[in-house]
Amino acid sequence: MTPVCILIGALGGEGGGVLAQWIVEAAVAAGYPAQSTSIPGVAQRTGATTYYVEILPHAVDSLGARRPVLSLYPVPGRVDVVVSSELLETARIVASGMVSADRTTLITSTSRTLTTAEKMALGDGRFESDRLLEIARSNSRRLVAFDMEAAAREAKTVVSAVMFGAVGGSAVLPLKREACEAVIGEDGRGAAASLAGFALGYAAAQGTAQADTPHIALRHTATSHVEALPPAVREFAALGLARVVEFQDRAYGELYLARLARVLAAEKKVDAAAQYEFDVTRECARYLALWMAFDDVIRVADLKCRASRFARVRHEVAATPDDVVRIVDHFKPGMPEIAGMMPRSLAERLLAWDRTRQARGKAPFGFALKLRTDSVTGFMALRALAAMKPLRRRSARFAQEQVKIEAWLAAVADAADWTCAHEIALCGRLVKGYGATNERGKRNLAHILDHLARGGTFATPALRGAAIREAREAALGDEGGKALDVTLAAHGVAPRPVVAQPVRWVRKAVSR
User: Fold this and answer.
1) How does residue 436 score in pLDDT terms, banded at 50, 70 and 90?
2) CA–CA distance from 495 to each of 55, 112, 369 (Å)?
3) What is the pLDDT of residue 369?
4) What is the C-alpha separation between 390 and 431, in angstroms, rounded?
5) Among 203, 230, 320, 344, which residue has the least CB neighbours within 10 Å?
6) For residue range 164-182, what is the model confidence (pLDDT) as tens digits?
7) pLDDT at res. 187
8) What is the structure's pLDDT at 14?
9) CA distance 113 to 126
10) E strands, 169-310, in order
11) How far apart are the C-alpha atoms of 226 and 106, rounded to whole Å?
């Protein structure tokens, strides 16, 4: 008379409530007592809700006048099936004690939806997926892990259908496959896609499909120049070329390849035997593409008015074809963003004017802008900005970025030792984000190049490379820069110059 206990963890919009309802309906249709409850929570992405279901695997008719009292809340150590649509959420459920090594079948997706904290990190703030899977495996009786997101995408359905199939295929529920498919139905909107997703999840749990569904291959621009690169470099180079061409034009892509060729030639000089498999060029291919396709007003406008973005928003809010979805974008452009679109001479005058204002104690120039992207007026405004792509080459921001990119690549090419060149190439990670974060990263990179890559006194190239690595890791690990200053001082390097901040006097409001 022990019930089967199922705990479901799903992010907002993934249909966790529908999954719980399917399980209960399938159990009731089979003649078993069942009930479900939901517990709202927060996942630092969108809303996260856990759903708890209990099924008594005895037919109601066999109980006579008796009726079971089922629990409303899961108890640690007494859960038979835990299914989760996101790997880190799975680890959270494990940490709560709901998964036990002697009882629980743990079904999890290997896909990740990054948390806010992971995205905010200057370096690679992601939790290690292999470590999370090992935690799940060591704490459960049986682990079923596969990419539910990819399976749902393949079936063109929501992830809850794939989760339902995995639960049904786990052989823990007292339900046959036909009973589960019956509650999904064959007719109605999305029924066929849900059944297809159910089949993929069922096969994964039964072990008749690969545990990790392969990701959909990215299409990229392939050219003879990319094919001429070493095999270890081609993948990043092809993806980087596609990104750069999409950002600007074909000529910009040719510049990207020319820069890579220069780095490759320099690497062959310091590693003629290709002992390190051209890792310097591979890392440059990655970070060079990200830097050359920098985020400016034109790119942001282009991304926000694409058809794929509207489709993604409708999918995230689970809108039906008949639903009207309103999209409001909030912008707050400042003088650096505005001046960056202008020619250099005009940009310098605008920035000087803003610096004068700030020196008098005024706040930096900027204004808030709210656009209804779903409206004709708002959409056309974004399209007008996106259409300025051909003018980007004449902008002050474009010229500034090219100068800084060349300085970084020159430091990589001029390094006399492979280790130093590799560490300098990895310093491309410092340039990321936009606004103040982006500017701070470029200032840190310039300081490292001037005082460690080219300056400073080191007994061996290995010591110079180690100093560059320590400075890079310190800059990525501390947004405030204190760790970087400590590292620079430890190597006898001048500290970063202090960025002037004007003092603003605010009149105190007097209440009457």
Assistant:
1) confident
2) 65, 39, 38
3) 87
4) 24
5) 320
6) 999 999 989 889 999 999 9
7) 57
8) 77
9) 10
10) none
11) 43
* Distance, first Cα to last Cα, the chain: 72
Whole-number Å distance between alpha carbons of 331 and 369 = 5
Mean pLDDT of the chain: 87
pLDDT digits (tens, 9 = 90+) for 450-467: 999 887 778 888 899 999
| Dist. CA 363–CA 56, nearest whole Å | 65
Nearest residue to 201 via CA among 192, 211, 216, 187: 211
Asked if 103 contacts 77 with a C-beta cutoff of 8 angstroms, the reply is yes
Hey, how many other C-beta atoms are within 10 angstroms of the C-beta on 211? 12
Q: Is residue 151 pLDDT above 60, yes or no?
A: yes
Residue with tokens 């794939």: 162
Angle of helix 177-184 versus helix 159-169 axis, rounded to 10: 160
> Residue type at 480?
G
Name the residue among 187, 195, 183 with its Cα closest to residue 157: 195
The CA distance from 135 to 133, in Å, is 5
CA distance 49 to 20: 11
Which residues on neighbouring strands pair with residue 49, listed in sequence order? 10, 40
pLDDT of residue 219: 41
Half-sphere exposure of 10 (CA within 13 A, CB side): 23
- Residue 451 is classified by DSSP as I
What is the predicted pLDDT for the residue at 213?
A: 35
Angle, helices 279-292/231-247, rounded to nearest 10 degrees? 10
The CATH 3.40.920.10 portion of the chain extends over 4-206
Closest CA to 259 of 243, 234, 281, 290: 281
Token duo for residue 108 = 């999890």
As a whole number of angstroms, the distance between CA 330 and CA 332 comes to 7
108: helix, coil or strand?
strand
For residue 119, count other CB atoms closer than 10 A to its CB. 12
Grouping H, G, I as helix, E, B as strand and the rest as coil, residue 4 is strand
Query: What is the identity of the amino acid at 258?
Result: A
Q: Look at strands 47-55 and 142-146 and give their pairing.
A: unpaired
With CA atoms as reference, report the closest residue to 108 among 142, 80, 78, 77. 142
Distance between CA atoms of 328 and 378, rounded to whole angstroms?
9
Which residue is it, tokens 């545990």? 211
* Token pair listed for 318: 């689970």
Neighbours of 43 (CB within 10 A): 19
Paired sense of beta strands 81-84 and 105-109, if any: parallel
| Rounded-to-integer distance, Cα 23 and Cα 31, Å | 13
Query: In which element (H, E) is residue 348 found?
Result: helix 344-359
The CATH H-level superfamily of 4-206 is: Pyruvate-ferredoxin oxidoreductase, PFOR, domain III (3.40.920.10)
Q: Helix, strand or coil for residue 71?
A: coil
